[in-house]
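Quick sanity check, UTP4 protein:
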Amino acid sequence: RIMVNYRVQKVKRECIVWSIAFLSSGTVVTSDSFGRVQFWDWERGTLLESHTVSTSAVLSLAVSETEDSIIVGTSTGATYQFQLLPVKMGSLEKRWVRTKPFQHHTHDVRAVAHSSTALISGGLDAQLVIRPLMEKMQKKGYDAALRKFTFPHRRLVSCARKARLLLFQFSQHLELWRLGSTDETGKDGEVLPLCRMPEHLVQLKSKGPEHIYCSCVSPCGNWIAYSTASRFHLYRVQYEGDGVSIKKV
C-alpha cells in the first residue's frame, strides 16, 4: 500500500487511484483522481516520478508490450502518451516523458489499449479511436490513418419476422419498410435476384423537440411503439391491399 496523497498540501478530498500497472522492472505506475500519473519503487514504496497531466481524473492506463510507452485516458476526453527516453543522447539513464496529447473524445476515456503500432481508446461518447504511431509505419495506407468508430448506445433497428418488416429509428422519426422477396434459392452468401423490391411503408415523425429514445415493432407488424425521455407512444398499423394506415392508440 502506497500513500498517493504523500507530498500533497492541504488535501480537501480523497485521492482515488483509478488504474495501476506493474512493470517488469519493479516500477508501479498509478493514475489518480488528482490528474497525476506516478511511478513508484515497489520494494521501498517511494515515489520515483510524478506527472500532472490533467486538472481532472486520469481514469485508464495501458502499457506497451515492450514497456517503453504508456497511454492514459482522462475524464476530459484527452489521452496522453508517455515514452521512456534517455536523459541525453547516448545515456543509459532513462526517464518517463509525456510526449503526445490527443483530444479525440468529448467525455470520459474509460478504456485504453496499446498495440505495437497504435494507441486505442474508448470513451463514454461511444467512440472507439485508433491512433497510429507514425514512427512505426513504413508506408502510407489504411493502418497509418486515424480511425474513429461511433457506436450507437442502443438498438436502432427492430424486426417483425412474421410480417417481414423492418423498423428503423432516427432521432426525430421512424421508418417502416417491407423486405423484398425472391423466387430463387441458393447457398448462404449468394446474391439472389428480387421478384419484389423493398418497399417504404410508413414514416412516423415524432412531435416536439425530444429525441426518440427507443422503439419497437411487434412480430406481427400491427403495432409500433416508441418512447422519448418523457412520453410513450403506441400506434396501430393497418394494411389494406397495397395501402397502409396508422392510428394513434
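Posting the structure with no commentary besides this: The domain at 17-150 is CATH 2.130.10.10 (Methylamine Dehydrogenase; Chain H).
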